[in-house]
Amino acid sequence: MGQGNSVWALWQMGGAWLSQHLWEHYAFSGDEAFLRERAYPLLRGAAEFCLDWLIDDGHGHLITAPSTSPENSFLAPDGQIVGVSEASTMDMAVIHDLFSHCISATEILGIDSEWRET
């Protein structure tokens, strides 16, 4: 068996990242039927996963933890090369995009205003 590595072996935001392609398809095509029937249900599902995954960092911010950034590692304070942290930039950027796309989709489609406000 090979050696595992947290840098590439686990990334909880994979679904959220992949859902960006659904929004890109809508943004390019303007196909509201696609947005309503195919993209939005998956975008919302990915957003709900992220809402469940986020935790309060104790300073009033929602973060991902544990968090990894695919294909990225860094030096810990003790000098070890590690790949697991809190609130990796990749996680936070993907979640920001996903939430922004969900907000836009609900406004375009005129649906789920109560969910959007939570």
TrEMBL record:
SUPFAM superfamilies noted in UniProt: Six-hairpin glycosidases (SSF48208)
The Glycosyl hydrolase family 95 catalytic domain, residue ranges: 5-117
Pfam family, one: Glyco_hydro_95_cat
Protein origin, superkingdom: Bacteria
UniProt GO BP: carbohydrate metabolic process
InterPro entries tied to this protein: 6-hairpin_glycosidase_sf, 6hp_glycosidase-like_sf, GH95_cat
MF term (GO), any: alpha-L-fucosidase activity
PANTHER family with a match to the protein in the record: ALPHA-L-FUCOSIDASE 2 (PTHR31084:SF0)
Name of the protein: CAZy families GH95 protein
